[in-house]
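Support case: magnesium ion complex. Customer-provided input:
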Amino acid sequence: MKIETVRGTEFTYPSRRSTDSAGHSHPGPLTQARMALLTITTDEGHSGHAFAPCEVIRPHVLDAFVRKVLLGRDPFDREKLWAELEHWQRGSAGQLTDRALAAVDQALWDLAGRALGLPVYKLIGAWRDKVPAYGSTMCGDELPGGLSTPEEYADFALKLVARGYKAIKLHTWMPPVKFAPDVDMDIRACAAVREAVGPSIALMLDGYHNYSRTDALRIGRALERLEFTWFEEMMNEQSMASYVWLSEQLDIPVLGPESLSGKHYSRADWVKAGASDILRAGVPGVGGITPTLKVAHLAEAFGMNCEVHGNGAANLAVCAVVRNCRWYERGLLHPFLDYDEVPAYLNRLADPMDEHGYVHLAQAPGLGEDINFEHIEAHTLRQY
Ligand code: MG
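Agent response - structure generated as follows:
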């Protein structure tokens, strides 16, 4: 079997999410958002797909790197193809990003699953068929009735518990919210949520990502008193020494790195340095399912958990095949938005959650995204 075509399709879909000046998503007016679908096809008529931001798999990236490596090759040689693509990043990482690598890797896994008639998580080797989810809130805002006060976080947490979530992660206030960052507000929000949901719901905090060491220590001590499960990306992850400093002092598990570059290589350095207690990797951030599995297995060998960053079918597949990931991150969630509403480019949710808080893996071949090709065809802006 040989790869015959690599194609990008840019399309629009209705969205009620908008992005602030720092890149955080919030509820917004109904607009037409853009997305791209990467499709890899073979000479035997099989295909695999992956969604990605339009800029990540733009025409130059496909022409200059992806087609050069993939065309004419066996789509089942994922490890080799990933390594050859990664090698192009030497000197071209600004063009060929880890997110582009991830889209290619996901499409190859999807293709393999579809060609073999297997869900990807079964193809890799399943650990479980359903994963407990934590509800991951959007960042705080200044929208009355939204996530603008500690009390509103508490009200929303009660709604999430009623929906079935057994765990909740708060993203608190970050600039450009005018009072952010604010250590006391973050602690008050965490305390209000703990008081509202009681002791049996697992809680995590992902606050402002640039706190100083001393601010982070103060919040961490408060989270210990509130019996939080983990404390995530509270400082700039480019300073590994700061994470070593914090992890040595706190009892609450410190989780990371999430946004740091360097794939499994940088995460190995964090393990060796003792910079976090729980490792972190997400499929788009570290360059695909293939390297995310390496991070999870690295953590397993050191007796550490590895919590998977972000939602979507590919991250869910990883959660289902590694034994040292506790939760699937479902979100981002906000009181003004219905996460259970199916996006126009899918026929069903990739991560349906039952009333007990478990997300169930799709049994269809491939990554399990039931793609609405009719919508995409009717709303295509360009193909390349
Ligand atoms: Mg995070």
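The first helix runs from residue 59 to 70.

Case will auto-close in a few days if no follow-up is received.
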